[in-house]
Structures
1.
Amino acid sequence: MADIKIDDTVDITDVVCPVTFVKAKVALEELEDGEVLAVKMNDGEPVQNVPRSIKEEGHQILKLEDNEDGTYTLIVRKVEE
Amino acid sequence: MAFTNEQLERYSRHIILQEVGVKGQKKLLNASVLIIGAGGLGAPAALYLAAAGVGTIGIVDADEVDLSNLQRQVIHTTNDVGKAKVKSAAETMEAINPDVTVKTYRTFVDSTNIMDLIKDYDFIIDGTDNFPAKFLINDACVMAGKPFSHAGIIRFKGQLMTYVPGEGPCYRCVFKNPPPKDAVPTCKQAGVIGAMGGVIGSLQAMEAIKYIIGKGELLTGKLLTYDALKMEFHTIKLPKDHHCAVCGDEPTITELIDYEQAECDLK
């Protein structure tokens, strides 16, 4: 898979549910349709819930990378309603 | 305007909602709502609008907090008895949410001041307890092109409807004229169950919020009635009256009217 151009990144490892998703959602709303966001999150609850919530909002999950340090990076393409 | 981490947390349950999101919460923070009456309806409406982060909330009332108010006017406390209602309400709202700017107007609305009071606000909430004020608010909002929420409560019953300029009927399309003095008892004479203000006033706050964020359907062209004893809500469809004296095709009311208050309500 070719490298994906990342337009913005947001770190949600410093907050807990539900602000994890809120912070990611705020970052997504700042982007234009089709732009790509990288979301750095902790393993566990955020990895289980944040990708699902983002998907439910209609955005496209491109991939989830294991950073092998207890964090993951979710790559999302913004899909405008 | 970027949210602080504190605001992200405060409004997280709103921002999570697809219908609100960041855009809707920003709309709320930039919006202004005027609440006329800091009583049974105005109290819960003011509390929820302040908590929701409506950026500017105006509150109009000339009265002081009375011990008999506290059974339903949940924005005031026992310590506030004797204090101006607008001051007591402002203190509670500011304590709930420092993001909110509260403007207080210690006056009763009448034909001389209402246009000036409503002119800077996006949405008006009628939380008054008498027909002269209700017709005055309706006529002023029609003339100024302002949306507003009408509500009334008595005993175990409540009702509300929403007026949006150009969409559906106004209060006068439905009710024409105030009833004769003393034909309809007031809360003071008839009583009202305290939680009724909570139900209907909260619904008024809900209509204001939906209007601001631009989502869902409003009670335009509809009157919602609530009977607490039967635990029944009904929605009645109401057409616009093209012969309405104030919002009709050829309005005959072109100036605001100060109807007489029933004797028993005057102090």
2.
Amino acid sequence: MARFLLPFAILLGAAALAGFCLVAESYTLFVIALIALTVIVGVGLNILLGLAGQVSLGHVGFYAIGAYVSGILILKGWDFFAALPVAVLVAGLVGALLALPALRVSGPYLAMVTIAFAFIVEHGLIEWRDVTGGANGLMGILPPSIGPLVFAEKEMALLAVALATLCLLGFWRLSDSRLGRAMRAVRDSEVAAQSVGLNPVSLKTLAFALSAALAGLAGAVFAPLLMFISPGSFPFSQSILFLFAVVLGGAGTVLGPVIGALVVAGLPELLSDLAEYRLLIFGALLLGVLWIAPEGLVGLLARLKRIDPRPARDTGADVSALLRPEKAAPLVVEALGISFGGVKAASGVGFTAQPGAVTAVIGPNGAGKTTVLNMIGGFYRPDAGTIRLGAADNLAGAPAYKVARAGIARTYQTTQLFGTLSVVENVRIAGADAQTAEALLAFVGYGGALAARADDLPHVDRRLVEIARALATRPRVLLLDEPAAGLMRADKDALGALLRRIAQAGIAVILVEHDMALVMGISDHIVVLDAGRPIAEGAPAAIRANPQVIAAYLGGTQTRARARPTPWQGPADAVLSALRLTAGYGAAPVLEDVEIEVRPGELVALLGANGAGKSTAMKAVSGLLRPVSGDIVLKDVRVSTLPAHRIARMGLALVPEGRQVFPELSVRDNILLGASARRDAPDAATLEQELEAQFARFPRLKERAASRAGLLSGGEQQMLALARGLMAKPDILLLDEPSLGLAPAIINEVFDVLADLREEGVTLLLVDQMAALALTVADRAYVLESGRVVKAGTARDLSGDAALEAAYLGARPAAS
Amino acid sequence: MLIVSAIVSGLSLGAMYGLIALGYHVTYAVSNTVNFSQGSSVMLGAVLCYTLWITFGLPVALAIPLALLLCALFGLAVERFLVRPFVARGSNAWLMATVAGGIILDNAVMFGFGKEPRSLPSALAVSPVSVFGAGVYPLQLIIPVIGLAIALALHVLLNRTAAGKRLLAVVQNPAAARLMGIDVKRAIALSFAASAVLAGVAGMLIAPLLSVSSDMGLMFGIKAFAVAILGGIGSASGIMAAGFLYGLAEALITATLGSSYTQILVFSAVIAALALMPNGLFGRAAVKKV
Amino acid sequence: MVRSLRVSRFALSRRAAVLGLGAAVLFGAPALAQETIKVGLVAALSGQSAKSGEAITRGLEVAIDEINAAGGVLGKKIELVRRDDESNPAKGVVAARELVQKEKVAAFFGGIDTPVSLAIVPFANQAKVPFIGVWAAGTGITRNGAPENYVFRVSAVDELVDEAMIDFGVKTYKTAKPGLMLINNPWGESNEKGLKAAAAAKGLTLAGAEKFDNADVDMVPQLTRLKEAGADTIFLVANVQPAAQVVKSLDRMGWNVPVVSHWGPAGGRFTELGGPSAEKVQMVQTYTFSGNLSKKGQTVLAAIKTKYPQVTTLADITPAVGIANAYDAMHLLALAIAKAGTTDGPELRKAFYEIGTYEGLIKTYSKPFSPTNQDALGKDDYIFTHFKGAEIVPVN
């Protein structure tokens, strides 16, 4: 019964402290009472900050409201124990009221709203003289009494300690309850919280109200303890100290506020002998504690706690039966469309996903697949079209949590787990009890510890837990956004089998995925999108053979590129080489033992399906992502430990994926910025000349030289990014997906430029989805699959190779 | 006459709020962090100027740049010791750390500078001139002009010089800026120095009207933060506009309703404005991505 | 991992150290047999009012040095224990409790802030330890209605100061329509009541009562309203910095009106901050080191200059009232202790009433305290002064 250890320890500590109170002298009692009150406010603030993730710099306002309500009522002759709940209620109500404006804002804006609130309360207390006694405050607030027992310091200290203990136990209970988990879920990922049916606004409002109520409770005890209150007793700096208490102790931990209160309310007493130097030393000590433990002292200890390694056990429950929806119904999407800033991201999208079947939505990058998923999931409001689940109402435009409650669950391209919650908590929050949660985790094949923190999971487990969580909502439809991205082959196969089993349980599975082997292997029906429009629909075999589909993927008839007239011949010593390069984000490496070499004047292409690790390789080489192991050598210098800007200054330029122009700067300035990394420090005239040269290469940019880069079309932005990269006069130019999201005519222009550059002798490393196109301009190529080089050779040899097509569209089924 | 006087002092205070708030803006734009001891930087500017000029007797033309240089060093120190160690660990505790830094600085200055307010003399704040029948010090008229001039100079510096454009590049896309060979860490440190210098300038300008003391910065820091938020912390021009708006609102409420309700009304207006426009009066919403 | 372990072990031992230290200071260490008589001070030692705490400290220390040089009281030396209240009443109460219950002071002094003193009063009466106000002038501090009143004061009393100010205005400037300029804090609030009552007692109608904040730079709107309402004298209650802003605002308006002020402007370099017109402001004081100094005054001035080398001119001795009040209060306390023959609170309280004649800095006290009047200074002890250059000189 380890989970009852903490409350037991709290009770034991409280009992010991209470025993000590019986013998302590009065000053000590008074300080204990003040620390206990700080604990109460700290617990309240911990609900807001630690559970709901909202910051407040105005809690002294609620503290003051509690104190004044109780003080005024006691002076009017009320019994303290009658005044106490009123004070708590008033503070809580004001908290809920403040939540209205506060929840519309976030970050520094939220901080400001709460600061303003604290000042309004302070000045309000001064000006509402008739009730509050103005700046001189209220005197003679008598301590409570029960029968003949008049509360002195000892009784007040005992009362404060008892209340603080109750608050700590309450917090322990809350943080482990469904409500507390829901608050933490909202903090960790508001998006995912909505998709399991939680309403973030009402949860955060509740957190605000609870938090304010506790501050009010502490204030209500503070008034009779001090017997005198005035606005000066509640200075703004106290708000900051409350926040300090929570942060120092460790936000979200049960005992954090105790440690924090000891520091912010107890430490100054230890330092009182320092007189005028006290604040100076106190400030320095606070800073010292922050340096040692920025996530809080208790948080630091919690990190050391060993996690119960027990994995999910197959409980023998019939999960398929459990998952089978009561009212299975097809999801019917009709004529769905949406535009962003005048650009149509999707239009006329329609399909039917049958229960018990896997429906895949595929298409090249930028085709609008995730956009469609986001519209179905309720994160985007479509401009046109309907989404119906069976005969129910149109769901188009409904908020995400309502869509979730209607029976549509989803997973995300980048997993959205509740990072600070354990694996089993992640699943339980979606509505499963502990037993079901374990059964679901076993069902999806999660083999790790149930108690592991979601943030600490390896990539593949994150995917599985996210699916288990989605299933825990008992969905009729399951949307999956690239669930196989970043997985190894074996994991992908297991995932495919899992998705089939989910479909067999009667759920309509909708899959957006780049891995064609997976898609072709498990789908019943495939919808192909290109540039936001459906271009084909049908069974896997038909889609696999559809020339329109193949063209959309490999770059076909509408695009062309110019090959080098005579094969490249040059020096063999490489400009850039990667040696046994392993890199990734977090636990699982995306790239493993990759060896690449680019020689002077050569154009080398790096090919592979989405998620194969191409962009990761580019990021690792350019220094944006530090490799885990292996070496990167640029012009005979090892650069694998250098930051990106140093590598850039050594003569490597990357034209990044998605262009990454500086949107608010002019086209001209964007191009000139490209020269920042130059070591030859060209003068203004030279720069001007080179700028003209770029304009000659890209006449369209010259026309728009003065306009903001953000206003350019995608194609123009790509030209701009190229020109910017060339201004660096790099020894090697890296291009990451230059054709992404561009119209065929523009793609042709881009590849013409690449061919020109190649002929001018620029060394190029190219990553592009359009494999056929890339191979035409390239001299040599590497094919990546699941983070490893599976094939390397001259472009000519590779272009006819079946392995390449397979890497993109999956192997052709033998019997078709 | 009453209104004219209120408008003049509203504009000069507003310009100061704007300058200090620009300090919040530059660091936020570059690094998504702010120095919550910005009020202490205001104080530092005024105190250093007084100390170098009056106490040490340096010529004023030397004292001012030297004081600003020291402000810049303070800004660098804040970034290096109070912000960077926490950001590097992915912690938000820089908020608390900069607050603690402010407490330490204010108290340290109290011992170094003395506990009583001193007057920073200025020939421009001795004999009043008449504007539409209201007597105002020439300095009060000059401050808004200087404030605007500095804001404009900052704008020109950022948008017309190569170094400024590199900083803007960092603001707009830090990863791409690194690819251009721009040292983003240095840019962040620079922004903290600039932030402290802006606050220091404001402190020196306002000191002759008010006085110099170790605790003069606190309310300036808080009000300027309100201005930064109200203007939309990502928008420099919005912040200057919000600064003038805030200063005028304060002065006009005081002039018409008396000073008792000024803070209540102004801070209520801040909450109301943010509730209606969650990204500030002049800020733009960030696009939410899933 | 290794690193985080090491850090946390450090944090652990640190935490243990803090806790241990805390336990030792809070709960342990019973007071050793006292070799000295401890007296306390709860005042603002940091923040905006730090200067006041410093002045009180100086007055007390000079007096203590004199007493100790003369052999102490009851054969024991006197020792001063100071606590910072940060101008926060709650902190003040905690500090008072610590001084009484942990440091076992025989009596303790209060600082500049009326709310802090008001917050301490009930505790002092309950703990039966004399609490002597040397600055805060709030009327209710000494007139607190307790049957056994342990609160004494050697300072001005707002209600009396307000009467004195109005009297002075009527006598000197033939004030018929007073205009009040009040700082928006507890001190201003308490004087608003007092001034209104004093004016009403004289049958004067107010032109108005205006408020301003500490950091305001422009009081022209408030003053304009008073001018338009026909005010013929300004009664000012504010500390030196905002008072200087009032003077500057009057300058800018070109309004030459008599200003009668509470003692606030004397707390700093008023003429430096407010310009030459500041000299025209007439201020209530309990004491000034300028003018023809008595022998006692010369001795104390010399002692201050010796003890605090940073004091070189009279302009550095600010605020004089804080020093003088504290100095006299300390001597009166020593007399009471000597009279009582003990530091026991109730005995000490009675001894206060038995103090005979004491030739002090402010005046010669004769039976300064009685159960019906716990204030050593009365209306006749106030002097009106004004700045001349950096010095404060009495009005002739």
3.
Amino acid sequence: MKCPNCGKSFSFGNICPHCNADIYLYNKTINASIKLYNKGLDMAKKGDMASAEKFLEHSVMFNKYNVTARNLLGLVYFERGRIGNALKEWIVSSSIKKENNPAKTYIDKVYKNPREMDKMNDAVHMYNQAIIYAKQDTIDLAIIQLKKAVSVNPKLIEAYNLLVLCYIKIKKYSLARKYLNRLLKRERKNEKALKYLVELNILSPSKSKKSQIDYYDDEIENVSSRKKAKNSLPYKEYKKRFIKKGEIIAFITGAFCSAAVVMALLLPSMIDTRDNEIINLKNQIEQITSTETDEKTLEIENLKAENENLKKQLEKNQNILYTQENTALVKEALNLEAENNYEECAVKILEIKPEYLAEKEKLQYDTLVESVYPKASQSFYNKGKSDFLSNNYNEAKINLENCLKFANGENFVDDAIYYLGKIAENNGDIDTAKSYYQRIISEFPQSNQYKNAETSLGNIE
Amino acid sequence: MIDFKSELEKYQPMMEMENIENSIHTEEFQDILDMLSYISKQNDLKSK
């Protein structure tokens, strides 16, 4: 053994050979703690948790370092629904012995199931509250709390005991008996419960002839037979239970209410989520559209600019082309003039567009117009008059019209107009003939053809 | 016949989880007091 005073070991006797300390009492307390632990363990194995709890509490009282007894006490507390006490014992135990201590495992297991732990703690809280109510003589409130406590944690034995006591107090013996049965089913040798059973046997004469344990056994049988009977209901009865209108209505109402609550809770958030999604999508579309529009606008502007450039280029090229063509025409006209072919030369000059000519060619063009047009006009007139007089009106018309194209106030212009009027009259084109005659009357009052035109106009009107 | 009030006195509140820490510290404090009282008793015996 180990001396508690100096910590050194020695084999026998109650006096330490090293420090002379008397350890007789110390040994006695240690042994007492062990014996009490053994008794507590025995009771726990037999299922008498109340007795086990007492023995183990005493064991720990004798030797607070008895970790094994403390751990078992924690287990017994836990089994009887006293979660707070159980955790306390295990925490103290694990602080005394830090390694290879099952208390740590127990604590971990409890903390890993927080929901169950909270329920057990709630049951304890309700039990404590019920004691307060009972002491205030508000038995009804105490009963409510205790019923809740045993429904939340059916292991809470003391709650059953107090509930039975409360029912005895308000003389509801059948209910007291009901909860007593439940209690005794869990703890056969619970002292308080057996005491209440005796009390109930006295208070209820029908059962008074039986001994308390016999009665208890009967009650157990009753409970088990009732349970069996419940489990093996006839089919019709079973079916009836589930087709009651009230139950169906309650079920449907419940389902509707649940659905309504779920919708009320979830719908706003769902709508909000959808709204946000729609807004995001709209923004994305706007961004894409605006980007696309900008890109297209830029593209169109570029194309327009390119088009303008091409147009300018084309115009420039066309100008060059026209210049070349018209320069060629001037050269041709010059050649025709050199050949004294004034008629063709004049027709060629008509084809020329002087705005596309360079300065030099423009001067040549002007000279050509000045010199060739009168000669060409005279030539066309001579031919036209000759054709007219020989009744060759078609040729005469072409030549006389060409004459007027190149004429510029020559003295044969009125004659040419008159002849054209006559040709038109002869061709049956009265309106044209009238216009020619009127032109002579209005433009050439001094003309030798004036009277002829007046007469011809009078004839055809 | 059971006396309700005296029977009720046997029921003590159980420890709730919120009170575990306090109860452990109280116990430790009690241990220190026990040691102090033991030492004082020893001193008294020696002086006698």
